[in-house]
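Q: What residues go here?
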């Protein structure tokens, strides 16, 4: 047997040897001559970067066939992802980096093409894959399953992330029902095991809102496959390589994975962009793996939706003593001030909507929810165009949050310019936008306006091929048949007790700010970020048992700070970060059948 064959034969022994080493999470272990680096982890996330190295030792000749161009800045990006994931979760990912230039080795090809017979290149190739095997074994041993990403960079013209699941572009062209109809497509993918256990259709894991691409779109990075771009069409697309096939679950096992081909502009080109991209990757990995590997929904995006829009205020009937059209109750019927937009939390967790914006058909913002605004499950917030002194809003469910874009002004509304001072009945739209992640949570438009976002629905009359059909002129308000989730219809066609306005309730509006949160459980912590400790304050509307529990982002309970009966009013407990790693912790406060969870960031 020649030296090349001996080195290949030694690979299983090398993997066993590496697996037995006492790796320390967060610390690096190197192969021969520091060509391969393994930063050990203690999480279910494994990341490899085979094409970003820059070392060009003379002992390894340049490869004579195959691609030799490096993926610029992917080694640096991998290190940023390692740091971002640790900062977010408090746990370390397993990171394997090939520090050799691609002219010397290609660790994403089989060994013949990748090392081309040089004994030192073969050894480095073996070490690279043995470190990945060791990381997989450790992650599965500790967590039962793992998620793997092979990180690359592409030079294609279209600036988007290309996510490779070992499915071809033509296979991605297939409709969802075809991909879901038989396990064949799932079983040739690199997420075979994950998708089989996900409990949702394969296409949802592959390119739905809860897919990795869906989460990256949510975080502001165009991705294919994803919700907006389910298929690359005729554009160039990398669908995964040797590493994805070898280390994903196409051939079985509990480690599922994908290849990311990162575009350059806005992602890898500057230090600031690499850091931002790394934070997004860390966030998406946490969400995607917790949902589809561990079936934990706590990191899903808030299910906040537009529920009703009044853009055509009823006229006052001069023949009756009552003042019609005064929806906000300030004594003035105004075509501007009495317009309103209703938001509902259709999810099962409290949603933080501070900083969310409302925008019109031109994506021009006209209202921003104040920082700290939270909606409990089924909670409602109503935003009026304006509101004069004494306004109380419509009869809406108790606990509704009430805002006005122009508080104190009875005849002012959703002003976006001197020529556009309210929502246009002939054609306009409302977009609920979370600018912190560049994501439109919901959109509804009507008339001459066009849908601007992936979640948009156009209300059309009469029936057409798309959108929710509303026969005849819309007029007055539109709402959903089921709060937050139903199809759009005229409000007059829905029971007045089902949606606001019309559901009898009492609420008041603060004179200064135009807001009043009437909720049975308010929670906040200060300072945040914190070091070494933070105070968690809560306010109870009624006496009852209160539990305050802190979890890490892997769902593990860190501490129970309180579990006792408390009177109505305010209370506080303190959480100490002494002896705990930096990262985000989740504080869950429960009382009276309600739970509020707030994130707390420990920075050391």
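A:
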């Amino acid at each position: 047997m020649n030296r090349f064959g001996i080195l290949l034969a030694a690979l299983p022994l090398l993997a066993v040897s590496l697996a037995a080493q006492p790796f320390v999470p967060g610390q690096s272990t190197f192969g021969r001559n520091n060509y391969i680096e393994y930063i050990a982890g203690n999480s279910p996330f494994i990341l490899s970067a085979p094409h970003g190295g820059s070392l060009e030792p003379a002992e390894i000749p340049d490869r004579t066939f195959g691609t030799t161009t490096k993926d610029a800045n992917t080694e640096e990006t991998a290190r940023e992802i390692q740091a971002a994931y640790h900062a977010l979760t408090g746990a370390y990912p397993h990171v394997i980096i090939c520090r050799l230039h691609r002219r010397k080795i290609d660790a994403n090809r089989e060994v013949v093409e990748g090392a081309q017979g040089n004994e030192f290149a073969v050894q480095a190739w073996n070490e690279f894959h043995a470190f990945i095997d060791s990381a997989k074994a450790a992650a599965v041993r500790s967590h039962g399953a793992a998620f793997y990403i092979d990180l690359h960079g592409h030079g294609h013209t279209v600036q988007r992330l290309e996510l490779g699941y070992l499915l071809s572009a033509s296979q991605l062209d297939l409709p969802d029902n075809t991909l879901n109809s038989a396990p064949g497509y799932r079983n040739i993918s690199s997420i075979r095991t994950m998708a089989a256990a996900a409990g949702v259709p394969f296409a949802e894991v592959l390119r739905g809102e809860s897919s990795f691409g869906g989460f990256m779109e949510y975080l502001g990075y165009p991705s294919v496959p994803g919700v907006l771009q389910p298929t690359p069409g005729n554009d160039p697309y990398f669908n995964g390589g040797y590493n994805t096939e070898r280390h994903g679950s196409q051939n079985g096992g509990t480690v599922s994975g994908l290849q990311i081909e990162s575009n350059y502009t806005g992602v890898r080109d500057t230090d600031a962009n690499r850091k931002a991209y790394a934070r997004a990757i860390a966030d998406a990995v946490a969400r995607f793996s917790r949902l589809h590997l561990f079936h934990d929904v706590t990191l899903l995006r808030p299910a906040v939706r537009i529920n009703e829009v009044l853009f055509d205020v009823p006229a006052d009937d001069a023949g009756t003593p009552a003042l019609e059209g005064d929806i906000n109750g300030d004594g003035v019927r105004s075509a501007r001030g009495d317009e309103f937009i209703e938001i509902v939390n259709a999810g099962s967790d409290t949603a933080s909507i501070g900083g969310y914006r409302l925008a019109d058909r031109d994506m021009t913002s006209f209202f921003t929810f104040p920082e700290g605004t939270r909606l409990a499950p089924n909670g409602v917030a109503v935003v009026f165009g304006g509101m004069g002194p004494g306004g109380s809003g419509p009869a809406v469910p108790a606990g509704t949050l009430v805002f006005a874009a122009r508080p104190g002004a009875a005849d002012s509304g959703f002003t976006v310019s001197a020529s556009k001072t309210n929502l246009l009945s002939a054609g306009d739209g409302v977009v609920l936008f979370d600018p912190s992640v560049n994501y439109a949570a919901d959109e509804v438009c009507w008339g001459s306006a066009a849908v601007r976002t992936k979640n948009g629905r156009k209300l059309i009359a009469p029936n057409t091929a798309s959108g929710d059909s509303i026969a005849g002129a819309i007029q007055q308000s539109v709402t959903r048949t089921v709060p937050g989730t139903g199809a759009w219809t005229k409000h007059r066609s829905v029971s007045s007790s089902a949606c606001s306005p019309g559901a009898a309730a009492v609420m008041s509006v603060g004179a200064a700010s135009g807001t009043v949160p009437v909720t049975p459980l308010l929670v906040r912590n200060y300072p945040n970020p914190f070091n070494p400790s933070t105070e968690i304050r809560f306010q109870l509307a009624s006496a009852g048992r209160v539990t305050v529990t802190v979890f890490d982002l892997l769902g593990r309970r860190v501490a129970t700070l309180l579990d006792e009966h408390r009177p109505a009013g305010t209370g506080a407990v303190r959480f100490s970060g002494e002896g705990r790693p930096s990262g985000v912790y989740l504080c869950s406060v429960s009382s009276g059948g309600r739970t509020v969870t707030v994130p707390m960031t420990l920075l050391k």
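A: Context that may help when evaluating the design: The two ends are 54 Å apart (CA to CA). The first strand starts at residue 28 and ends at 30.
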